[in-house]
Amino acid sequence: MYRIREAIVVEGRYDKNALSQVVDTVILETSGFGIFKNDELMALLRRLAETRGIVVLTDSDGAGFLIRSRIRSCLPKAGVKHAYIPDIQGKERRKRAPGKEGLLGVEGMSPQVLLEALRRAGATFLGEGTAAAAQERPPITKADLFALGLSGGADASGRRAALLQRLDLPAHMSANALLPVLNALYDRESFLKEAAAWR
Predict the structure, then answer these.
(1) Which class does domain 2-131 fall in?
(2) Which ranges constitute the DSSP H helices of the chain?
(3) What pTM does this model have?
């Protein structure tokens, strides 16, 4: 498993599943063309682009390029890297027939192809060189969320909704979805200090 500094943006859950077998980082889904109507997600991507950077990794078909183009037009160029997979004919195992253009998507790529695409895009692989030392820090954990009343207790969803609103994050994030985003945006010490002030 390779740790990457940047968050990665993919089209859907099968892409996310394939990538999460290879890299350890925040992976967010656009829900296909859902990104065109989801201002909350775009705002979150903008924050991630500004704080740690993002890598856009969409399919190599026309739809993937439309989604990539939308993200490119809405986010600051400096914080966004673009990873491209090769055009490989075929179909994913779960599908009965190939896609419209007959190309494999991100979910159909081998781990080696995905890693090579990320390396070519300039993703920061932690543990390779000096970047690792700068990134080592204790993470925010599920236990922290529980202790703050944001998961697993009475009215945890209400407290979480208030936190999401306060932090300008998408309103319907579960505790499991919230955790990697918090770790992408905050270090544990500053988050716990800020959280103590909210109570």
Answers:
(1) alpha beta
(2) 13-20, 39-51, 62-74, 111-121, 131-135, 142-147, 156-166, 175-185, 188-198
(3) 0.75
